[in-house]
User: What shape does this take?
Amino acid sequence: MGGASFGALSNLVPSTGRDNFRNLVGQIKNDRVIGRLVGEAYGNAQDDAHLDLFYEAFDKHGINNERLRKSLQDLKLFKGAAVSDEYIDRDIDLVDNLWYAYNSPTLKKFLDDSGKKKGTEEYKKAIKMVARHIT
Assistant: This one.
């Protein structure tokens, strides 16, 4: 019998406390990984929604990064306990990154040359993607 058969036979034999503990530790590790992945997904979705708002502010309303930065800095003074300064600082970084990408002549030319024209959803997605990956 191979190793797989032995593993299958272990399902028929009552578990020892050690096996239960090993299973518990494995489940806790899995729960942590799942929790981290869910948290990252929520964070990415939140960043994406904020980038949409910031892009619209630049593109549709003529607001610049300095005005958005000031608004976000002011928000720190009036925020509740549920929002930390780190979250607002992350948004300020997103504003700066998006402003850089939005105003980059090199990026605009590259996107134009690749058929993604300003004002299209593809153009907006590309600008947001660049902004998310600037470190």
